[in-house]
Structure formats: C-alpha cells, structure tokens
Amino acid sequence: MEIFQDKLYALADSIRAREKGDVVYLRGIIEFSNYCRRNCLYCGLRRDNTKLGRYRMSPEEIIKRAKEIAALGIKTVVLQSGEDPYYKLKDLVGMVSRIKELGVYVTLSIGELSTHAYRELKKAGADRYLLRHETANRKLYEVLHPDGSFENRVRCLYALKDLGYEVGAGNMVGLPGQTDDMLWEDLLFMEKLQPEMVGIGPFIPHPDTPLAKEKGGTLEQTLTMIALTRIILPKANIPATTALGTIHPEGRELGLKVGANVVMPNMTPQPYRPLYQLYPGKICVNEDPDACLPCLKRRIESIGRTII
C-alpha cells in the first residue's frame, strides 16, 4: 500500500511540475464576517453556535486591508465570509470594484447567491468564485446541510461557470458517514464540472457543533485526494489548505509535494482573526498576518518552489 501511495504521489507531483512548473501562487484571504445564516453540522460558524463571538468588518476596513495585501505584492485578494445577508449586493459590488482598482485579482467565497447577484459581481470585476461542494453524495450532503440542498449547490456552481468565473469547488475528507465510494463520487463530480480550482481539506471536528465527538479526517486521506485530483484535473489550481497545516505541522508542504500549487495565507487583521472558527486549532490565528508571510515564504522556498 505504501509503495502504491508513493507512486501515486510521485505521479501527481510530476503532473503538477509539467502543467504548473515550480511556482506557488499566493492568494491573500480576508475573512470579513463570521456571521452565517446556515446551520451546517460541521462548521463552527453555524447559525446555532451561540458560543462564538461574532464580527463584521466594515467596507472601509475591508478596502484598507486589501490595499495592504496588494502592497505586499500578493496578486489575488480573496473575500471570504459566512453566508451573511447583512452585506447587500450594492455593498459587495462596491467593494469588488474598488479592490479591482488596486490591480489585483478578486476572488469571492461568500456562499450561495442568486444568478443575478453572481452576474452583477462579475460585472463589477470579480474574477474567481470559491464554492466548495463539500461532498457530491446527495444523501450525505443533505444530512450535513439541513437547510441547504445539493441541487442548489450544483446550480450555483454551473451558473458561475456560465458567467465566466474561474470556479473553485472541492470536498472535505473524512466526514462522518463518508465512504471511499463517496470520495470517488467527488472525483467524478469534479471531472464533470472541470473547476479551475479545487480546495480539499480534512474534516476537523469543532467542539461547538453536533459533530464534536466524531473522528476527523487524516493526513493520508487528504494527501491521496489531492494527488488523485491533480491526476484527473491536471490544469487545475489546487491549494495546500490551512486545514492541512492544522492537522500536521508540515501539512501544507506535504500538500505541495503531492500535486498542490497554491497557498492561501490568512490576511485577516486582528482582532477578528481568531474568531473565524470554521474548525478548532487553526494555525497562526494569534499572530500578526504580515509577520506570518515571510515565514510562509521561507517554508515554501525550502522545498524548492518559487512564490508568485
């Protein structure tokens, strides 16, 4: 089994080298609100988690942080939040258009919206949209998302494709009730969708959710899914996720060695930074984000990669 995995990882890494070279793309994330109208069973931001201190950054705070990210030489700003209806479409459109003026790419990760909203945000200048499907198994999806539907998630993904976004999908590995067959469903779903980006991370149980006592996803499972994804989607951008770095001290480096080619440093400012608790134990949340960047660059360069 170990020999098979070594060969799988080597194949995935060779495809990454052929298609993407030795560059690692940085995408700076601003987690601008931890309010969420959804009640997903695995997520620390879920609506019913009353133990979480909530926050919203103002549009001016978000623009200021985007300017600081651009000044650091990071070429993509990612705006991420829970599904927070507090921000009206006109507010989001205004933020996107102002951030585009900085000469950066704008990626959004703000959940399920109407096709009209996606169209207006694209017109304002949004380039990419991240909307992980989490699991392509309909039954498991609807157990985990009691106020959502798999059909609507798929509708959103294809609407984004039709509007010309670079689309990010992706799944969680090690979910309660997830089988190997379900992980194959994820791979087949992504092969059909052909997303430009795929985010794959381990399930990490949060103590203030209904899945608090469940077992989490493993490093081995997650690396295997990253490698298989690189093989079936050779041209996709695949991040080595923060969640991977949370379950193993060298998780991100290991992800980069099995097919990943993107790292998304958390650039959320204090005091908000520790409060975006999708899962517990998230790395670097108590540090100054600008100070983290040189460390991250050194770690990436230590495995022979060049940062863009």
Automatic annotation (TrEMBL):
This is Biotin synthase. The keyword S-adenosyl-L-methionine applies. Its EC number is 2.8.1.6. Transmembrane segments: none annotated. Its cofactor is [4Fe-4S] cluster; [2Fe-2S] cluster. It comes from Carboxydothermus ferrireducens DSM 11255. GO terms for molecular function: biotin synthase activity. Keywords: 4Fe-4S, Iron, Iron-sulfur, Metal-binding, S-adenosyl-L-methionine, Transferase. Residues 22-241 form the Radical SAM core domain. It comes from the Bacteria. The keyword Transferase applies.
